[in-house]
Amino acid sequence: MKIILASNNANKLREVREILSPAGIDVISQSEAGADIEVEENGKTFAENAYLKAKAVYDLTGLPVIADDSGLEVDALDGAPGIFSARYAPEGQRKKRLLEELKDVPDEKRGANFTCCICYIDSSGKDHYFTGKVFGKIGYGNRGTNGFGYDPIFMYGERSFAEMSAEEKNEVSHRADALRQLKEYFVK
Q1: Lower CB count within 10 Å: N or C terminus of the chain?
Q2: What gap in Å lies between CA 34 and CA 154, rounded to an integer?
Q3: Rounded to a whole number, what is the largest CA-CA distance in the chain?
Q4: Given this model, what pLDDT does residue 18 score?
Q5: How far apart are the C-alpha atoms of 71 and 148, rounded to whole Å?
Q6: Radius of gyration of the chain from Cα atoms?
Q7: pTM for the complete prediction?
């Protein structure tokens, strides 16, 4: 089975392929499918943003598509940055801004979770949703060199996501959780 991932993010594509390829699902990027578009993420929820991306690529190609929207929700910031995680600050400044906003927040109030919502549009155009979460807390500085985005400051137990190998992160991450649900849907 071939599915288009409504993204050209190499890290995301690698992660999705690692989880879905053992189920016999061939995942290609939207550019590999000839869908060179940029979709405005103006939804109010992760699900709405995932749908907007999936629907745009589906409308162009007519092929099954998965798209996700994910973000970091911090308890002490009332769920921010949430759906604005990728736009929270200029590139290279997001973690710095978040750490600055939490500088006086005690350890027990630094709870956070990553949320990922996947929208799968099947060959008939019907949309399906799968949501994954992983809970942890925000650390006090960057730790580790693996991963991307907020991974170096998101603590899962005693380690940041950036201190985990890709295999370890794929066992517990929000995207992995949502992708496992999607994979189970396919093998039913």
Answers
A1: C
A2: 35
A3: 51
A4: 84
A5: 12
A6: 16
A7: 0.89
Q: Answer whether 55's CB lies under 8 Å from 122's CB.
A: no
Residues 4 and 57 sit within 8 Å (Cβ to Cβ)? yes
The CA distance from 147 to 131, in Å, is 20
Q: Give the end-to-end CA distance of the chain in Å, rounded to a whole number.
A: 14
Percent helix, strand and coil across the chain, each to the nearest 5: 40, 25, 35
The pLDDT tens digits of the residues spanning 108-165 come to 999 999 999 999 999 999 999 999 999 999 999 999 998 788 999 999 999 999 999 9
Catalytic positions are 69
The DSSP result for 13-64, as a single string, is: HHHHHHHHGGGT-EEEETTTTT---------SSHHHHHHHHHHHHHHHH-S-
Contact predicate 68/129, CB 8 Å = no
Ramachandran category for residue 50: left, alpha or beta (phi over 0 → left; psi -120 to 50 → alpha): alpha
Tokens representing residue 23 in the block: 């189920």
CA atoms within 13 A on the CB side of 60: 18
* Dihedral angle computed from the Cα positions of residues 16, 17, 18 and 22, in that order, rounded to the nearest 10 degrees: 120
Cβ atoms of 29 and 8 within 8 Å: the answer is yes
Residue 7, both tokens: 């993204």
* Length reported for the chain: 188
At 91, is the secondary structure helix, strand, or coil?
Answer: coil
